[in-house]
Amino acid sequence: MQPVEDRLVEIFREAGIDTIIALPCDRVKWLLKRIADQGNYVPVTREEEGVGIAAGVALAGGRAAVIIQSSGYGNMINAVLSLSQFYKLPLPIFISHRGIYREKIEAQKPMGLALKGLLKASGVGYTVLQYPEDLKKIQRPLYRVFKEGRVHAFLLSPRLWEGCEAGSYSLNQRVFETIVCPEKDKRKKIKAELTRFEVMQNLKDFLKGEVVICNLGIPSKELYHVIDQPTNFYMLGSMGLVSSIGLGVSLKTKRRVYVIDGDGSLLMNAGTLATISLLKPQNLTLLIIDNGVYGSTGGQPTHSFSVVDLGLVAQGFGLKKVYTISRASELKEILRKKNTRGPRIIHIIARPGNASVGNIPLSAEQIRDRFISSLREG
Ligand SMILES: Cc1ncc(C[n+]2csc(CCOP(=O)(O)OP(=O)(O)O)c2C)c(N)n1
After folding, report:
1. Is the pLDDT of residue 250 over 60?
2. Which label site among 146, 263, 295, 314 has the fewest CB atoms less than 10 Å from its CB?
């Protein structure tokens, strides 16, 4: 009989899935090896990051699936509800269901036992796959996921893999490059000049006609006020995921993609910088408007107000083109540059403060539909 992992890869292909996003579980190591070998694999640092990337892939016309461990469902619930379900974006989640069958690790049991209840509570249907013959049960719900913009979970019992012994990783060599002690005197003080709204006003001409994915809360409202266009995707929830969504979009379009992120949000999902660094999408520019506060919720200081340098953090994640600036002239100079091959990180030190602008008069579906059609049209 065909090995389970080969059949799963075939099912993904038959369903038109072009991107497989995963965070490993020991039980699916053979499957992940098989997927990594075929080249459309996006390894992530946290499961909710995967939901963001899958959303971006869907918005740009692609098809993604996510593979996680049952404990990882706990890391993604908010994103499943307030991004995938809220915008009705397709998300098939293949969950290695631990803690329920011949489990040796006690810590797997709490999430493993709670999983079905959590899926039910989050309105996510599921299909249990215990034996190789059960793989037949995947096709129909998977078809509905993409046709109807649904979230559906496929619970992969450890029993499914009994007898599997295909290849695994053999990474023994490692040479690591680092700066052991950065020179102190190279540090410089940058004074914030612009508020977030003023940054957006300076971005206006550069963002015209471009694909823009914008952070939730007041940033999206300000962007709507400064320049509304169908190629703007406004986030209404799922804090932290804007750069992940932008990454997903950038993987599936040839167009330039601009992300407007915030310091509080990026700190919540900083690991996505590592994934951007790994995948190196040349069409992606992250504009991190670092006003040092959670501006949308009352201006409480974030850790970047006092101790965190997000530009250095980005460099630490291996990103090469990182600019930390505060002036409008510097921003424009970078954006005017002919060589725009990214990923580029423009870290803008800004002043706290919000413009008084109204709500965005668009529903999630309207934001989604006009974005998808404008990308499809070119
Ligand atoms: C999971 C989650 N926690 C908290 C919030 C509340 N919240 C919405 S926007 C926001 C602030 C975001 O700050 P930042 O990314 O720095 O953007 P700014 O508004 O300062 O531009 C917070 C805390 C939320 N929506 N979701």
Report:
1. yes
2. 146
